[in-house]
Design goal:
By secondary structure, the protein is mainly alpha-helical.
Length: about 250
């Protein structure tokens, strides 16, 4: 893997959500935007996304909550800054690869990132996540998709689709109450399914064992394969109005 060099400020303007630090009064030597973001990430790693508040981050640093507003405008900006920080951990695959493998590699890398920072995935759900650290990754995917002949509208939607799948999968792993008891639950679930009236639920009963087969990793890989197979179909049959596709696609 080759880590892409950081984009220079001249290459990409600041995102609209990023404010300029506004220190009030005498600057506190222990405070900076980097310190605030690092403290927020510590809170997330230890306590999860629901615990992230300006007050909790201030407590982590040992200052008042009001002092943080000289460095970030609000919680939304803080979340975006945290996401920008953790996406810096992802290595962008080398250029010239196959778009299918690139998507799979990036999907795995994103899931691994979320597993290192459990509690962060929930912050991406319902949020348009576009940060400077994601630009090189997005550009690589778009370049390979367009080079392969993928319709532009499909290529434009891929990042959102794959990002939603990975973050939702990671969130489910974060919140599962079955840690350490998965096998007991699966055994009980399978036994209940098999006890259903076979005459009424013949297919459900027949696939009881198949429904719980595989590890979380295998299920994730299968989901990525489904997405990629679906995307590949657009190389032969571009989307049309019948699929309720945007008229410009």
């Amino acid at each position: 893997m080759l880590r892409m060099p950081a984009l220079e400020s001249s290459a990409a303007p600041e995102p609209p959500w990023r404010s300029k630090p506004r220190r009030r009064g005498v600057p506190r030597p222990q405070l900076s935007r980097d310190v605030v973001v690092a403290a927020a990430l510590q809170v997330l790693d230890a306590e999860g996304g629901e615990a992230l508040t300006m007050r909790r981050v201030a407590d982590q640093i040992g200052v008042s909550a009001s002092s943080l507003y000289g460095y970030v405008d609000n919680k939304d900006e803080l979340v975006n800054l945290v996401l920008d920080r953790i996406f810096e951990e992802i290595d962008v695959p080398p250029a010239g690869g196959d778009w299918r493998q690139t998507l799979k590699q990036l999907g795995r890398a994103m899931l691994a990132m979320y597993r290192r920072h459990r509690g962060v995935a929930v912050l991406t759900l319902g949020r348009v996540v576009v940060t400077p650290s994601m630009l090189a990754m997005g550009e690589r995917v778009l370049s390979e998709l367009r080079s392969a002949g993928m319709p532009d509208q499909v290529a434009a939607f891929v990042g959102d689709l794959c990002g939603l799948y990975v973050s939702a999968f990671a969130y489910e792993l974060d919140v599962t109450p079955l840690a350490g008891h998965e096998q007991d639950f699966l055994a009980q679930f399978t036994a209940w399914i098999k006890s259903l009236p076979a005459g009424r639920f013949p297919n459900t009963v027949a696939l009881a064992d198949a429904a719980v087969a595989g590890t979380a990793e295998q299920r994730f890989e299968w989901g990525m394969d489904v997405i990629i197979r679906g995307l590949a179909s657009y190389l032969k049959e571009p989307p049309g109005p019948a699929a309720c596709w945007p008229s410009g696609g």
